[in-house]
Amino acid sequence: MINGKRVVAWTPYGRTLTYSILIEYLRRDVERGLIDEVWAYMNTDPVGQEDDIQYAHELADRYPDWFRIKERPAGVERHPGPKQRNTGYAYRYMTDPDTVYLRFDDDIVYLHEDAISNLVEKRLEMPHATAIFATAWNNAIVSWYAQMAGVIPETFGRLGAEPFCMDPMGWANGQFAVDIHHLLLDKIETGRVEDLYLYQDFPIKPGTQFSVSCFASLGTLYASLPDGPGVLVPDEEEHWHTVHQPTVTGQPNILIGNAIVSHFTFFPQRAIVLASDVLDRYRALAEKVAA
User: Fold this and answer.
1) What fold does the segment set 6-290 form as a domain?
2) Contact indicator for 168, 143 with CB cutoff of 8 Å
3) 179-225 pLDDT tens trace
């Protein structure tokens, strides 16, 4: 609980490979009293992901006081398109007006120790925004602002003239991702992550698509939706939170500069990042958190 509000950290769950890292940071922040519950919203295939499903149930057995498995809401049919289209249904569970909901991709592999508190406090301070975004490392728009601030050097590769969520360098270039991960990992290992803070907040122009790897939202928002509590229309969550709803309200989303989390990879980067030492280094850090 933070400032009198419950905090639920939730994830569209599906990949043990990286979620096994994320859970150590979430457990740390549960034990610190910052997070009240952790939800794994099951976005898995029934065939081919049996081990991932089993791991989620093992976590529920291991942490019965705070870990919850959430299935697709009753009566809601599975979306016929890519399974990522089913994640928008999760918001039907997020209608408690006294709760802040923190969304994490299941391949978030690092949370700075101040990230949760800074994100929630800013969320409560700025209730008008649909979403308050963390400083998600390996996010093309975050990388753009970080490069403009001199935090990410242009020698890694130069991003475009304007922030763009699918920037060819910041979203699709695997070596760029490896380089910025190494930059962050070096800072973590030497206790200097704050060197990468942006030290200001950035309003994101309404209608700007932004990867939803990590953001904070309010139960009051979802409880009052016109099509029913938690019912997103349109139902694709990234479009709704970053394009549709900010355009409807005219209020920008906010990217804050002092809540660093690390997003492992986008699919065009994946082969190159997996071939590097990046995941092993993040796992070693998580093991220290678990110790």
Assistant:
1) Spore Coat Polysaccharide Biosynthesis Protein SpsA; Chain A (3.90.550)
2) no
3) 999 999 999 999 999 999 998 999 999 999 999 999 999 999 999 99
